[in-house]
Amino acid sequence: MRKRHIITTFSASDLPTFDTELSGIVKERRSGFSKSFKSDKSLFDDYQRQLIPSSDSEWREDIEFSLHVPVISWLLALGVKHQLGRRDKRNLFPFWHPPTQIDAETMRTIWTLIGISFLNSYYATLLGQLLTFIAREFHSSTAAQGLVLGASRFDIIPALILLSLADRIGRTKVILFSTAMGAVFSTLGAFAPNLYFLAGDQVITKAFATASILLIAIVSSEKVPSTARAWSLAALVIGSALGAGAAAVMLPLAGISAGSWRILYAVSILAIFAIKPFSKYLKESRRFEVLAHKADRKVETGSAKKNRNALILLSVATLLLNIFYIPASQFRNEFLSHDRGFSATSISIFTLVTATPGAIGLAVSGRLSETRGRRIVTAAALVLGTGGLMLGFLSHGAAIWIWALLGSTVAPATIPSLGVYLTELFPTKFRGTANGIIGIWARLGSVLGVVAVGYLGSTVFDQVGTPLALMGIGPILLALLVIVKFPETKGLKLETINPEDSAYHDD
């Protein structure tokens, strides 16, 4: 493993400033009585900092560290050098690091999960990205597109089986299996003879992708410290956004000819080659190993009521959220192409320009959710993000870009602040199953949204922009529900939120 160095010279008068233990991305302890420091907990596999006199008036600080995170070790090393090289910022956490110390194994797990999120998001995004081009080859109406998108939302039913299985045999096994099978069935989409075959194939593809994505969030929440759950979810969503972005970047290929959209499905098979490397760094959480196989699956009446109320609350929340955001995503290209006359290349540029800043919203939300609280961040993001997107669907010309940019930057902030509740409010044994049940209600919202937009766009309005804006009422109502009914879980351990898990003790 490569050793890296950060060497700084300073005057003897500054020695007291350097001769103190750091507590930012690295938590140091003094090594004996010498001016040498090692790390108790950090993202490094090995770390040592030494203060060495060069002369009577000058000293040298030598930081030697090594870290290994597949593919991006060099990038993280640059971030480390920048952070530790800033004398006045050393005890702060940079944006790319959670707002707490994290060990090397956990950091590797997070980045492995980000990679898997990338692949599954690519599979799951393709139908929505390509449907307008697929419909042209198969001569399908907007109403037919709405029905296909609605049918694809039933992926949650087979996904629920996988999620329930994961509560018993382990999350990581199901994640890796689902990612591999998702690649296979996504590739089959390239050979679809008609729209309905493709719809059936996508139900299966998205079932595997959905199960994997939900389990990824669960593994992340179970692995990271209590003050990093929202941050880690934000990081995972950025990985998913990059997967969707990869499909957007390749979108111009779909405009080459009538059937060139099939290329984007065919490249899915390449994901198979990533499964074995991912399996090396993806380990089951100790929390699951301790709690999931306990023989007594009964819970006290109070805990059962808590779990039931959480299930109802989050089911309603995801229904209200998806009644707008799923059709907004699925019909965006139809809106841009049919309603506003964008070409395939223009759609690709628009998607990249407006969606890329969403990473800012994710990063800010992940940190603010850990420092300011989940509820206020969620409610603000819902109102501002949804409002911007609604106005974008009602606009023309430059205003489309302005409102879409605002909405697409702020709306993703909802994902870590609201999404973290899906793992926090349920005990370990039932976390996967609960997410599957909530997913059914989320899909119901999706079906209602896409079918309503497809129907209204084909009959009443002859365009999809206005129906899409009308669906925005759902998330606005959700903002009120969050403020009134949701608990604040910032900084609480999973065992505090779920007393059923009290048998697990985090060392």
Account of the protein in words:
By secondary structure, this protein is an alpha+beta fold. The protein folds into two domains: about 5-90; about 105-290 and about 305-490, MFS general substrate transporter like domains (Growth Hormone, Chain: A, Up-down Bundle). The chain is about 65% helix and about 5% strand. The chain is built from 23 helices and five strands. The chain has a five-stranded antiparallel beta sheet, covered by helices on one side. Strand 3 and strand 4 (about 45-55) form a beta hairpin. Helix 3 (about 105-140) runs parallel beside helix 6 (about 170-190), helix 6 packs antiparallel against helix 7 (about 195-225) and helix 15 (about 360-370) packs antiparallel against helix 16. The protein is globular. It starts with a strand and ends in a 10-residue tail after the last helix. The mean pLDDT is about 85.
